Amino acid sequence: MSAKIRVTVWGEYVHEKKHAAVAKIYPNGMHETIAEGLRESPDFEVRTATLDQPEHGLTDKVLDQTDVLTWWGHCAHGDVNDKIVDRVQTRVLQGMGLIVLHSGHYAKIFKRLLGTTCSLTWREAGEKERLWVCNPGHPITQGIDRYFEIPQEEMYGEPFAIPAPDETLFVSWFQGGEVFRSGCTWKRGNGKIFYFRPGHETYPTYHQKEVRRVIQNGARWASPEGSRWIDTCPNVPVEKAPEKIVVRGETLHVPGEAGFR
Ligand code: ZN
């Protein structure tokens, strides 16, 4: 494993080009601001990738050199090529970490890996959000007090249609009264997944120090611990069995044959 954690920050980069209000807060794109937050720590080597690049910037080569991928998307989830979703899913199962941010709850890759609709309730009213720490001992909540607040955010509320998380690290309360599981972790295959709620495009959320801190912590936590597991479903021939065995009956499967790997 390299000395630095290699993070690829993926951004849809559509709102910033269409809406002046978003471009004002994120002049170089939200992905560049998220990347800037990660670059504040010497632990990371950060690159960015966007939807409009060939293969959405997520070539095999880029993913080979990625320990953790962060994902922000919203209005163009449907434009993400299914082949790239397959590729990212494979890499996660092999051990790459994935941090899904805000409206990425509806990203193809998130729904694919979790297997549920990932829907939620929402309201755009510039409410205050208070994020409560559920586990002060977890690596992802380090440096955060009992809670922190974001002055203005979009409300996301329960029910959040996700499979039960391995851990719920933050619960949000919104000014209007709703609550939401806003920091959740899962493991899929060999890869760790962290969903972190904040980050509506019309607010300066990714400039806020606590938010940056949590994303940094998340990237450290999600980075692979062991080696990459490339799953080829290998056949183990009789002579390689640990105990001596004799083939009995018909054998139908030919290793390497389509459908019988
Ligand atoms: Zn939003």
**Helix coverage percent:** 10-25%
Bound molecules: zinc ion
Q: In CATH, what is the homologous superfamily? A: Class I glutamine amidotransferase (GATase) domain
β-sheet strand percentage? 25-35%
Would you state the CATH class?
Alpha Beta
Query: Strand order within the widest sheet?
Result: 2-1-3-4-9-8-7-5-6
Distance between the ends: 30 Å
Strand count, sense and barrel status of the largest sheet are: 9 strands, mixed
Based on Cα principal axes, name the global outline.
Answer: elongated
Secondary-structure-based class equals alpha/beta
Number of domains: 1
Query: What's the CATH architecture?
Result: 3-Layer(aba) Sandwich
Topology as a string of helices (H) and strands (E) = EHHHEHEHEHEEEEEH
What radius of gyration results from the CA coordinates? Answer: 21 Å
User: If you consult CATH, what is the topology?
Assistant: Rossmann fold
Count of helices?
7
Q: Low-confidence parts, pLDDT < 50 over ≥5 residues?
A: none
What is the total tally of β strands?
9
Mean pLDDT: 96
Question: How does this structure look, described?
Answer:
The chain is α/β, with parallel strands linked by helices and 261 residues long. It has one domain (5-222): Rossmann fold (3-Layer(aba) Sandwich), CATH 3.40.50.880. Helices cover 23% and strands 28% of the residues. The chain has seven helices and nine strands, in the order βαααβαβαβαβββββα. It has helices spanning 15-18, 20-25, 30-39, 60-64, 82-94, 108-114, 209-222; strands spanning 5-11, 44-50, 68-72, 97-101, 121-133, 147-157, 167-174, 179-188, 191-196. It has a nine-stranded mixed β-sheet with strand order 2-1-3-4-9-8-7-5-6. Helix 5 (82-94) packs across helix 6. It is elongated, with a radius of gyration of 21 Å. The mean pLDDT is 96. Zinc ion (ZN) is lined by residues 102-103, 154, 200.
